[in-house]
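Study this one:
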Amino acid sequence: MSHAASSSIARLEAYLESWRTRLKRLRYARAAAALALAILLVTVMGVYFAMHQGFTAWVVNTARALLLLVIVSLVLYLLVWPLRKLKYAATREIETRAPGFDGRLEAFLKAREQGNPLTDLLAEDTLKIAAAQPIENNVKARDMQLPWIVAGASIITLLWLAIAGPGLWSYGTRYLWAGWAVSNLKPDNKVLSDNYFSIVSEFGEMENSEKNISDFYETFNIDSSQKILNGFDHSLYI
């Protein structure tokens, strides 16, 4: 094999490796965006329902299990399997994104594996097409930038909820994520165990009349309501 032929094969292999690297970056970007956004949405839903159920264990644990399931599923579906597929079948995706190759990349790889003496000629011919198929034109920078923007915005929102979220959102986010490991993260307030939110919500939707209020208070134990009122920390809502 001549030096020129060897150079053609090496340059084509380098071109293919550049394709693989860019496709990997695209997968990482998309996976990061999907993961961050999904984690944010599940966290918001989990904390919302936890607040309205007094942070009962089954609600919080269900939200944590759902978070874990979402993370594992997305990592497998968007990273592990696609990267494994890319390792063995990158040329198929490359030719799908750059149809001008018309099967030459697959033919080149097969010829190289078989030690075909025409491999160098096929490499030279394929390089001419590759010159007209810049990788940046087929996998654009914005295709990778947008997912990272979505991922960053989702992470910032999640951090804001945990650090400075309104009302019990801050407590709830931290408790959902780290309450299983840190015992004092749960809001220390009797109102949580007495389902304050559900009572206040029902009371607020009632028509403002003496009879309705009287009927409402007859539906639950006055001792429990007294404990709620005495134990509620109003400073949380100031």
